[in-house]
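Bumping with the actual sequence this time:
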Amino acid sequence: MSIPDHSAKRLGWLSADARLILAARAARALAYSFLSVFLGVYLEGIGLKPSQIGALLTTVLVGSASLTALVSLVADRLGRRRVLVCYALLMAGAGLVLALSTRFPLLLLAALTGTVAVTGGEAGPFLAIEQAVLPQTVAAPRRNRLFGLYNTVGALAGALGALGGALPKVMARWGVPLVDAYRLMLGLYVVLALVALVLLSRLSGQVEVERGAGPPALFGLSRSRGVVARLSMLFALDSLAGGFVVQSLVAYWFHLRFGVGTEVLGPVFFGVGLLQAISFLVAARLADRIGLIPTMVFTH
């Protein structure tokens, strides 16, 4: 169910729904990125042991994967907009728990929502639903460019967020206790989650599946099952390697190994985010010329 090309032109090729999704993506990416820079250091500051910190980071990834699988089964039945709003609410709740509690069981519960940042970007139900919605918001010839823009917005906001990860150290120089400075940033995390909630709540009915066009089979797959299975195995292999070097873990390791703080780590991850943003723009242009699969293969 895609909108006609002339509608997209009237809106400057980006529909209102696409703009709302891009804005929500930016708000979340900003929050996820600055949290991933100082999360390990903050958890250490409130008294957690390295083994507990590792368990929390692992729980975040497990929760994210589990909820993504669940969402793929129920989002089209319950309503995509409704599920996105509920998940933004979970994100805000997880930030509140991190800011207000030092009890390990409660922190584990917050981690299980999959809305606590550890990778510097995001992976989970937000992406799964939004990437299903985006093709419906623009004419087919613009889809590669829209996905490139979607990822570029996330990378640029993530780069700014990484730079913001250095703010607690700046606040500490102004006399704010460091742990309290981290908690203030967690308050900003909650605010950004609520901003995303408001934006996603304004999505139109165009983001939903057509009535009577429910999922034809398990996980909504029929003819595409083979392609999706192969891509899933490829992404699983890629994620297995990436899981060893999630951004929160890398930042915490630099802190333990070299004694560097977020005032150093923030600018480093800011530079990484800028390079990612450039690569997404180039990839979209390249995919239009040589195709999606060749772009994935040859640039890897």
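The tokens above came from a reply further down the thread. The chain has 13 helices and no strands.
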